[in-house]
Amino acid sequence: KYGVDQATLFADEISRADLAVVSGGARGIDRTAHQSALRSGGHTVVVLGSGLSIIYPPEHAPLFDAVVQEGGVVLSEFPCTRPPRPANFPRRNRIVSGLSSTLLVVEAARRSGALITARIAVEEHGRQAYAVPGRLGDPSSAGCLQALHDGWMEMALNPEPLIEEAISSWSRLSRIQRYVNDQ
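Given the sequence above, the corresponding structure tokens read:
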């Protein structure tokens, strides 16, 4: 419940700021974030760890249809008939990170795909990653709490710093693009 509430709050505010919610479309927090973005009239992008004709998780097919119907994107780097395999998901996470100017982890166990994505964002893509602090002793918060303790993620107490970071990142990218175009 805590994670769902936080994901809803953050996704609503991010959508109202006209920023896109990007994730791997997994069960739980990802699903909640996409649903919240759609309810808020926001933009959303789902990166699959399977081919486009084999939706995973299968119960998210109506959600992914709604994403496309509302002008969002569902994409995959895999052939259409590729089933979901464990090796696909770290590849998918790299794409999620690459498409994101700022990354938020709402809940994550010590070993989770969300933390893999956050590490890629920080170490390979030079992005800022944030974590929502969770409850002490809760296994679903252990990864976020450890990342905050280790200092490689910033604490997200509300959506505003993420929104400011995302807008600032896009501003820097625009300046770089204008410089490259002028050369």
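The mean pLDDT is 91. Try to locate this feature in the token string yourself.
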